[in-house]
From TrEMBL:
Protein name stated in the entry: MurR/RpiR family transcriptional regulator
InterPro entries the UniProt entry points to: Homeodomain-like_sf, HTH_RpiR, RpiR-like, RpiR-like_SIS, SIS_dom, SIS_dom_sf, WH-like_DNA-bd_sf
Domain HTH rpiR-type: 12-88
Span of domain SIS: 138-278
Lineage: Bacteria, Bacillati, Actinomycetota, Actinomycetes, Micrococcales
């Protein structure tokens, strides 16, 4: 890790700090320095994930870069860049960090309806983009596989973990990886009886691309879940399942993107379960029984409340 600029002080501008430390930065961190040097206001305009994608690296690497140039994290770094560029006003920050189509003063009902429309459009767009022949091909391969590797970094790692958990409950030997070292170790052990699935919003995350590349070289059927059919990740995958991309007005951590990804993994999960129906049903029943003792019985008050809610709806 590059040391903090504790010996330099605050008299240097951020650009000067980056320039001073750039020669000693590891390659991954240097990529971020190069993006910011070319576009000094990028941190004000981009989320940590978007900046990482633009640099072809990870959110964790962006955080290491921020520390390398004397900031505790990305939030503090963005504030510093905004202050130096004169773009730190509240409205600009709101539009950049929250949304451009939702006002700071919008009532809760309007916020809810705006978000509902956004998420509904994302799901509908994903439905229109999916090639069901490809989806069924992947489901069949997963159902018949010896092992399934699932790769995802940052927010995509959450989707990868969710997919792994669902498959594992119906008897699929699935593992998810967000750490590139662990993921690469698993990827090279795959073969033609394996399936490797990579999740990445932009399809440009370096670690995810690298893990899927190694799995493909080892002989696994490779699958990309991404918003960009022309991305690096999609280009190296045997099958690319395309989901809706971000609404340009809804920034930065647009959950509608993740809901579209969840739709895809839910579809795959159900199709795999259909192909392994007997075994899947037995395993789901067994897992439900295993955790049943950890669930408390319904409270009488809860039953009363539920009855009242039903009566109110009538």
């Amino acid at each position: 890790m590059v040391p903090l600029l504790q010996d330099v002080g605050n008299e240097l501008s951020i650009a000067q700090r980056i320039s001073l430390r750039r020669p000693a930065m590891p390659q991954a961190i240097a990529k971020i320095a190069d993006v910011i040097s070319a576009h000094p206001t990028a941190p004000v305009e981009l989320t940590i994930t978007e900046l990482a994608d633009r640099a072809g690296t990870s959110a964790a690497t962006v955080t290491r870069f921020c520390r390398a140039v004397g900031f505790d994290g990305y939030t503090q770094f963005r504030v510093g860049v905004a202050a130096e560029s004169g773009r730190g006003d509240t409205r600009t920050t709101w539009r950049t960090d929250i949304a451009d189509d939702i006002s700071q003063d919008d009532p809760a009902d309007r916020v809810l309806l705006t978000l509902l429309g956004l998420h509904t459009r994302s799901m509908e767009t994903t439905t229109s983009l999916l090639d069901l022949d490809d989806v069924q091909l992947v489901a069949r391969a997963i159902a018949e596989s010896r092992h399934v590797d699932i790769y995802g970094v940052g927010g995509s790692g959450v989707i990868a973990d969710e997919f792994r958990g669902r498959l594992y409950r119906i008897g699929v030997n699935a593992h998810s990886w967000s750490d590139v070292h662990e993921g690469l170790t698993s990827a090279v052990l795959q073969d033609s009886s394996s399936v490797a699935v990579a999740v990445s919003n932009t399809g440009r995350t370096e670690e995810t691309i690298e893990m899927l590349s190694h799995a493909r070289a080892a002989g696994a059927l490779t699958v990309a879940i991404t918003t960009d059919a022309d991305s690096w990740l999609a280009s190296i995958a045997d099958v690319a399942l395309i989901t809706a991309s971000a609404n340009p007005n809804q920034r930065p951590d647009d959950l509608s993107i993740k809901h579209a990804q969840l739709l895809v993994i839910d579809l795959l999960y159900v199709l795999v379960a259909q192909r392994t129906l007997g075994e899947a049903a037995n395993l789901l029943a067994a897992s439900a029984m295993a955790v049943s003792s950890h669930r408390r019985a319904v409270r009488p008050a809860d039953e009363t409340s539920a009855r009242r809610r039903k009566e109110t709806r009538r």
